[in-house]
Amino acid sequence: MGRAQYVLLILYALYRVLGMFLFYFIHFLTHPQKIFAKRKVHHCPPALRDESYGMHQFITVNGIKLHCVISGPEDAPVMLMLHGFPEFWYSWRYQIREFNKDYRVVAVDLRGYGESDKPLDSKAYTIPQLVSDIIELISSVCKDKCVLVAHDWGGIIAWRVVYQRPDLIAKYIVLCCPHPKRYLELAKVDLNTLIRQWYVLLFQFSYIPEMIIRADDYLFLKDLFTDSKTGVVNTNRMDDDAISAFIYTFSQENALKCPLYYYKKLFERDPDKEFNQPRD
Fold first, then answer.
1. Pairing verdict, β 64-71 and 104-108
2. Closest CA to 156 of 275, 61, 72, 54
3. Residue 107 and residue 78: Cα distance in Å, rounded?
4. Helices 208-226 and 257-264, packing angle to 10 deg
């Protein structure tokens, strides 16, 4: 990709960012009471303590505690689920109930998410750290190989787990996350591939992304999950109770700051070099 294309990408990203600022600025001008209103306190919805999803456990790996929801027969093969952004274990609620008859399902809150530990140093969110978390988690919850299921950021991590430790993986299922090398190849020749990731540039800023997501009682999250373009197709699967669970989770202290560190550390690794290195 040439310099001119990169300039176009940056200009487009800035256009989207400025458009978003303009939207919220007008929204606040027309609803001034929401600027000065005290931030609403969100309480834990019953769905997050629904025992039918499984038992909640904290597992220590790589120097931190990861929160996991575990269900299914103890002697069944392990199915480990890794979520994306802005999500947490609850994103897998339908899959948990579907597969826990035949598998020991483990839905984890990744480092910095949900009830897992949230180190405040951005250096704690490098890709090698995230990969080490999952490798150690697999060894902790699994006697043999596991079925690894991943979405979005979970896939970015999982691709590297599969590459570095194929001995731990029986099957790998990935959603919305192409192989990092293939993505890089497309990004070099197809501007649209990069344009669709414009928000990654927004997330490089400090404070601003958090302000946008929190604005008007987390309108960003509500729109993300229910919009006709970005939301779920079957709106019955993302009802008010489900949205409340996401808003509650991301309204907690540092619940946005830490996940956004993932994006700030994203470009510190070169997929070409990572996936060409000899494996252990």
1. antiparallel
2. 275
3. 10
4. 100
Q: Which residues contact 36 (CB under 8 A, 6 or more apart)?
A: none
d(C-alpha 173, C-alpha 156), whole Å: 12
Helix (H) or strand (E) holding 244: helix 240-250
pTM: 0.89
Tokens coding 124: 């704690």
Q: What is the pLDDT of residue 86?
A: 96
Q: In sequence order, what are the residues at sequence separation of 6 or more whose Cβ sits closer than 8 angstroms to the Cβ of residue 161?
A: 131, 134, 135, 138, 148, 168, 169
Q: Phi then psi for 265, rounded to 5 degrees?
A: -100, 0
Closest CA to 1 of 196, 264, 201, 194: 194
Please tell me whether residue 106 adopts helix, strand or coil conformation: strand
CA 272 to CA 47: how far, in whole Å?
A: 42
Exposed (0-12), middle (13-18) or buried (19+): which is 231, by Cβ within 10 Å?
A: middle
Model pLDDT, residue 145:
96
Average pLDDT, the chain: 88
